[in-house]
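DM from R.C. (forwarded with permission)

"hey, sorry to bug you on a friday — could you get me a structure for this? deadline for the figure draft is monday and I only need the backbone to look sensible"
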Amino acid sequence: MFVLETDRLIIRKFHISDVNDLYDYAKNPNVGPNAGWKPHKNRGETIAIIIEFIKSDEVWAIVEKRRNKVIGSIGLHKDRKRELRNAKMIGYVLSEDYWGKGYATEAVKRMLKYGFEELDLDLISVYHYPHNMRSRRVIEKCGFKYEGVLRKASVLYDGTVYDDVCYSMTKEDYYDMMGR
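My reply, with the result:
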């Protein structure tokens, strides 16, 4: 079973029993739109999303160890903007209650280790919308290299079109950063 740990977090597969924790942050209008998805309307919608996460095996729960509470999600996905086979795109979202406390940075760094050291990926990309400065800060703290902006690259659930601010990290970048 897939389980990764950090000092404060467990990253694991989602379970149906996570519905209340996920719904608590997914209904927040400040959370989903920053990641490109609409806030959840009800727990039924959240259950359907959890089922998709379980089936896809690409998105995992971020659990705060101290409270054993799901506080976000993180995933490694096929990067639809690249054809490189051994590349993934990282995506993450965190409950607003946990913003600004280093949890997202901690989770992303652990996923970088997993991606490069265990999956032997060649590249991991990450994107944020121009207005999402919190995500930008996480990306910078994790050591990704800025690539540029893809203009009008993402259409959101409500039809809004945003630019994608693009970053990446190669396997070589990662090992250089780790001092190996």
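R.C.: lifesaver. Helices lie at 19-26, 32-35, 43-56, 103-118, 133-142, 171-177.
me: no worries. The mean pLDDT is 95.
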